[in-house]
Please model this.
Amino acid sequence: MRLVLVGAGHAHLHLLAQAGALRAAGLDVTLIAPAGFHYSGLATGVLSGALPSAAARIDVAALAASRHVQHLQTTVEGVDLSARIVRLARGADLPFDLVSFNVGSTVQDPMGLAGAAEVWPAKPLSRLFDLKARLEAELKREGPPPRVVVAGSGQTGFEIAAAIAGLCARHGQQADVTIVSRTTPHWGPAAALASLRRRLAARGIVVAIGEVVGREAGHCRLADGHSLACDMLVLAGGLVAPPLISGLGLPTDDAGRLRVTPALHARDDPAVFAAGDCAVIEASPRPPVGVFGVRAAPILAANLMARAQGGALRAYEPQRRWLSIMDLGDGTGLALRGRLWWRGRAALWLKRRLDLGFVAAARGLRPGA
Ligand SMILES: Cc1cc2nc3c(=O)[nH]c(=O)nc-3n(C[C@H](O)[C@H](O)[C@H](O)COP(=O)(O)OP(=O)(O)OC[C@H]3O[C@@H](n4cnc5c(N)ncnc54)[C@H](O)[C@@H]3O)c2cc1C
Model:
């Protein structure tokens, strides 16, 4: 059976490690993905200047080669499910018997701001690394730091704002960052958020209630008619699945994520699998967080092999609580698990240990790495 893996996100990196077992089960595996993967857990560490960008990069091409997996270094632009082919960005079609999507997410941009000058979406992560270079160029000049507006007040928006403040501090400057939030942020315990906001305010980060609807040179416009001084606008307003997923014509949720069964295949098409941010298990929806792609991976591998061999499929039950640790860009982290929270240097130490461990483990798939 021809198995096509679209995207080299967390779950498909695991499948590369399992390539031998997949082959032994009768699957002929082809991966379609860019040559490199950026690991999001380390992205704000790169943005703040604490880590080099190489720390967050995994060489997908080298991994695929070491596992003897055919790797087409391109992206998929569309899928014809009835003809069982994927359409590659470089123009060719590729037939499949089974297809699995692990293409991550993109930033919500309902006002279509992403293409404008000095507008920086949080994904793809390479854009954050470009933003870092841009900020550094400004910080090296005489004068006040750039006025940055971060549209979006989830954990990602706060973490990016904190990383920018960290970068400014490395250049001896106080940040000038406004996080714009539609409502009062409430993604964590009230005491954790209050403590975080106090700490960030002391580093030049404030939160304003509103909705960014436009950007012109020097300012951005809010939905209520007010404007904010703004040299650079970061879009961090929530993650949605890439349009490729809604283009499949299969049921999706409000964020465009493919609705899958606990066995990780589309309810209406048992040959179409998906995991990570681009999928949602109908019975147990979870937010787009890396851990779910990681934990789904062994079930995905087992079920693809079962599909090839005619065995029973296993169910993935995503955990109800998970640990998330934010890098606050000043050598400290904020750890959250359910109603529990903990801020300090030890939290960041643990985050680095987990994230660098993930990257090292993925790189370690490569003989001699
Ligand atoms: C700034 C930031 C920080 C974050 N920090 C954390 C964190 O600390 N911890 C955490 O758990 N989550 C974090 N997240 C969320 C995290 O990024 C996602 O939940 C996670 O990356 C999803 O993993 P995934 O495996 O689904 O996809 P991804 O890791 O996004 O990987 C998808 C891959 O598919 C490829 N791809 C995309 N489209 C195509 C296509 N059409 N064809 C072929 N390949 C394609 C991409 O190039 C990419 O390599 C953060 C997000 C952001 C924006």
